[in-house]
Amino acid sequence: MIVPYSHVLFLAGILFALGVVCAVARRNLIMMLIGVEIMLNAAALAFVAAALRWQQLEGQVFVLFIFAIAAAEVSVGLALIVYAYRRTGSLDPETYNILKW
Amino acid sequence: MTLYGIIFYILAAVIVIATGLAITRRNLVHAVIYLIISFFGSAMLYFLFGAPLLAALEIIIYAGAIMVLFLFIIMMLRVDPTALRRPSLRHWLPAGILGIIYLAVAALVVITDPGSQATLKTAMARPRALGQFLFQRYWLSVEIISFLLLIALIGALYLARAFLKESREQSEGEL
Amino acid sequence: MMKWILFLPELYCLLMAAVFFGLAMIGRPNPRRDYFAALFLTGVSIVVCLACVRLEGTLFFEAYRVDLFSQVFKVMLGMGLFLVVCLCTELNGIEERHHPEFYLFLTTCTLAMMMLVSSVELLTIYVALELSSYSLYILVPLRRGHGIDVEAGVKYLMVGASASAVMLFGLSYIFGVTHTTYIVELIRVLPGVITTPAAIVGLVLTLSGFFFKLAVFPFHFWAPDVYQGAANQVTAYIATASKVAAVAIIMRMVALSGGGSTYLVHVLVTLSIASMTLGNLVAIVQKDMKRLLAYSSISHAGYVLIGILSMSQTGYASAIFYALAYLVMNLCCFLVVVKVAYDGSDLKIAQLAGLHRRSPMLAMALMLAVFGLAGIPPTIGFTGKFLVFAAAMEKGYVTLVIIAMINATISLYYYILVVKAAYLLEPDEEMDRLAVSMPTKLLAGALVTVMVVFGIFPHHLLEVARAAARILM
Predict the structure, then answer these.
(1) Distance between CA atoms of residues C327 and C83, nearest Å
(2) What pTM does this model have?
(3) Fewer Cβ atoms within 10 A, N terminus or C terminus of chain B?
(4) pLDDT > 90 in chain C, percent
């Protein structure tokens, strides 16, 4: 007996909301990417809990794939960010105003 | 409340506090360090939920590889923490509203869903069973994701090369 | 052994990707070679897809289903890829030595979308969607020396990654409620629990990942910037083939609910109205042709949603038909964009001035395509809109249809502005005639013929669309 499933879901919800806040509020590309990572982590937590609730391995398999996606996202994202930083000298998305946000 | 329950709530508190601290830091290095603590907490939760392999991978991939990559980039770009503007109310407000709406929805979901009161029982997925399951049932997805990683590799390589070429042209222009 | 035949289109795409990967490894750039290789290979891919259209069966532990629905969409994707490659005769927007990579990413994206339309298991769907997204994330900043491409690329990645994280969270809810990841099972279980908030929230969050692909309202804001920032041919691909795949997968996911949820319908109606209205109103003030097409695509996403939210066989069939119509019309528009802005720059609407003298053929193609987008008979666009509205009327969504019609009327204004620029305005300085090659003329002629002929005689296509939609029910 650990805790009710709903408590885990709620924890995942809080984490996810924190990730959303980080991705939306921080005016910094690296912090935005970190926000997305937090969101992915929240989803992974919900999956593990669901896998335990139903005693099914699918949920855990999903988490493995989330790790892979997160790695791909970070590699491409950071490569793009570095490229953009060298071009504009800034990590603040508001200075990128050739195109309107 | 069982011992497992107490461990869960302590870990949950650690994770939420560490993440909350991480997203409000101005200094990016501090943010990443707090986030690593949060990921360690998640890894222990996975352990508690009977996923030892995932717990190990969370530490190796998330806390290890991904966060170190972040640190590496932050140091490489030499981001000056004081130069980063403190996010103004204009930025926090929509994010805060979004977060609160989201939390309300999450709370509603949790309260109204009758099945979610089911208490989680301890169990463990052995890494061997997980691996066999993964490579039997999901090998198409494994192939797709390996292809995805290849594409990400080529893409990152391309972006780095494009940047190198540009900087070379620039330095030639300066000479 | 026979089972592998089912996987043939995907295997062929994989082979194409391998060829381009090999070409990318050979050091010396040779754009002509790359172009003809791509043209030939993608041409064959249509044949392969058509040959496999009647196959049926399942693969990979039931995670992968080949049926008429998926095969019809695979043919559309193959056609989209081929037509986009046709536009690459002067690929000036991308550096010569990166042409093989460009084709490689186009192919992998198409491959991923083909797998996406065939997957009937949530994890496979998610992974295939990510593969297609990542190919596009890298295609956008491939553009040569503009500066705006990196910016567009960063935006696309940030919005896309957030959307996929939201979608993943939704998937975790769905899995938590239904403890299955197979669509067949979900269709059985989900309607029973669809009234619980967890299932609704899960489904809506999941759909948001696909809405990002289709550029539906809350996830639309990448579209204009990415359309403008990416190279013209890449934009053509994003605007056509990737939209088609998104329509297919949204249909599969919405069909999951079994039509039993009024909440879901309300959400879809709201999003549809918001997309149409926003897209059309903002499109009016645009000066850049690609930005205009981006906002028009947002509004068209709204129209397609009308067909999908009807949740009936006619509705799904009309959405399939609309997706095909949109593919053809939009490609025709981009053909003109690519040919007029042959140096790979962005095309301002004002630059279209005098097009009817510079190249009558392109001007006519543009006019018909734009009329199609606006929904003027006898083009395929009118037929598509008519079918979608009819399906919604059948279900009694009168207000929605009226709003959509008002929107179609508003959109007429800016579409007419484009035609006016091409036919009535004179350029400030005298411009040379555009050198339009014979194959281009043939292509434009073929697209125009398709638009008009299937606009007047849609029965055959509609039969196929109905048969494909029946599988969803």
Answers:
(1) 10
(2) 0.90
(3) C
(4) 6
